Predict the structure.
Amino acid sequence: MKALLLLAALAQAVAAGPQTSEERGLWMEMDEAERELKDSNFVVRDSALQTYVEGVLCRTVGTARCAQARVYLVRTPYFNASMAPNGMMQVWTGLLLRVRNEAQLAAVLAHEFAHFEGRHSLIQFREARAKTDAMAWLSFLPMGVGAIGSVGLAGGIFANSREMERAADLASIGHLKSAGYAPGEAARIWEGLRAEQDATAAARGRKSRRDRNGGFFATHPNSGNRAAYLTQAAAGAGGDDGAAAYRAAIAPWWARLIDDQIKLNDPGATDFLLGNLARDGWTAALLYARGELYRAWGRPGDLEQAVAFYREAIAAGVVPAEAHRGLGLALTRIGDEAEARAALGDYLRLKPDAGDRAIIAAMIAS
Amino acid sequence: MKRATLLAAALLCATPASAGWKLVPAGTPIAVAKSSMSVRPGEAWNRSTERPSKRGETWTLDGVALSDLSFYAAVPPGEAIFRERDKKDEPLPRVAAGMLPTDIVAAVEGSYRILLRTSLFEVEEVAPATLGGHKGVRFTYRFTTQDDEVRRRGEALAALVGGRLYLMTFDAPAIHYFDARIAAARAVMDSAVIPAASVEVTR
Amino acid sequence: MKGWLISVTLMLATSPAAAQWSSEGSATKPGFSFPPDRPARILLFRPDVKVGAQTTAGMNEPSAEWTATARDHIAHALDAAQLAQGNTVVPMPELGGTDAALLADYRALFRTVANAAIEHRLFPGARLPTRKAAFDWTLGPGIERLGAAGGGDYGLFLYTYDSYGSTGRKAAQVVGLLLGVGMTAGVHVGYAGLVDLRTGDLVWLSADVAMGGDVREPEGATKRVAQLLAGFPGRVVPSR
């Protein structure tokens, strides 16, 4: 409630730019950060994907407003997006891997945009200063918090209070409705995250942290509450989920993003995400990815499963040459040497310039 | 300082400017990483008094962010190769008894990605090699960290000896430093000796 | 940028060697001097200037006005100082395409090299045994491309971070809250480095944790620049 009042008090057009000295200071800081971000190695420079995401933002919040934001797609395999007070919006690739359709992406973008329009960073800054809560703002100090580097400004600096998160969530539902997106998809994001955290925990033999209020979630409503009030706010409204458009847009990046995820050594979450992606059926690419995951997982029986996934993938259609490599390596571990040699030989035939050609050839020969 | 970037830096987790440096003289065999593995450097190096892990040791010519030669010796099955930042929430890949050469590469790549929180890591070439007379693997890679945005190249030599992993890595900025220092680093790696007799008795 | 900012400030603030800092605050590559026959053209890489107010709890409140003013003052003071030396300081032009990426790469590498040089050279306790003697750091000869793109002989990198104590801060003097050590009101750190754009060698480096000069005022900025340029390699021209 308090946040809503503040919102009302500050609901001037952001297009006018920073109004006060402190606000100009925040913008300056972010303009400097943006200068760095522009040249960052981590920014995904793909004009098709960029145009697509910007297009979704514009459809969601309106063409006039979206011009105030500059979207940066950042190669980071975790779920996050952020909006700085100067209009610098960051969307992490881990988020692109997790949202399942255009409506979910739109929900996140609208949520971040609502923070921007509501000048939430500024409110947060004032509150932090009022409480002399230096800890909340350590990110502004030279020592920083974690590897914020030039990009990870999301978590620490704009650790928005739960009220503001809630306000931004509800604003996003309004945007989804007026843009004709299915508003019920907003809640699906949080349901998905909860289920993913359950899967991580189960695979690691631990209790799930899904509704824990700590770490990243300390400043956010817990995912369970969030899904509940979002569902309520969206009740009765229909719309387009844009699943096919989203799949097509993300397709060129999909293999890289799933590879980034597999290498996080979080097999429970990865398996969950693959299952999600396969809700319309296991494609050859998904089966290959699952083979890679199971080959690395290391539980009894995983190698045999990996072999089965690779074989299904190869039978199902077009797969990267690496499917044969994975098959050969899994078979080697199992001890099926003849089959392993054949598969590794296939890999080298299909990818004669492979970077690991020398070691694979040596493994075939031994 | 230590957070400046490098894996060793991330691992050393040192309080700023507290790392001391000891001379590693040229031409004399020297045991590394509290193990029976020894190397004979062709030129003098500097050894950090802080370890990147309990089975590790870091050398440099220019400071770890510019040239980082690290040794990890006799890591047994079930252990992570590098020091874990958060065992519960960010567990690293483990050494396993039946690891293939390609699995060693994957474990190193996965560990770097997790510890450095980067997805910009690419393995380039992987080839058979010998480490102290034992069959092993040599591989090259490139990576970048968000902390400093410096693009780096790396080369590593690894082998499973007596069921334990021995690994040497060299990381340096792709601009100038990798090319300028790789020969010296490679000479150290190639001089490694792991006495067969001591292989099974480690600690 | 933050990576650098984080590490240097942390290091400076917490090092037990800080007392020795001022005596070791700058270093020059042995034997270096500007070519005597012609003025050197020095490319100034966009200085990192951050000025803000420190609140009671030690939080920095960035100030766009102070920063912009300081940036101007520092540029003018630099200009004046170098003109007095017979050198020309020109801003590195904005580069496009692959040159922009090259510039970003070298900025990142400079921060890393300067960081290493400061840690291992300017802090005697952290010296590398193999590098005890000479001040010998480089970005490598490949930087020539950057010199060609920008049209200069040397590159000057400059960084200042100032957080002025607010009234509340000055009263409170909260110990240990800001950087983990006892702090006076305000934080004033800076460094500057000069790179030979033909060889890539870092020919001069200066850094300080307790910079003087109020960069929000022209005279203060001049003082700061003078302090940052302490030990700047001279040509044989008497200073003003």
Chain B is about 15% helix and 35% strand. The longest strand of chain B covers residues 121-131.
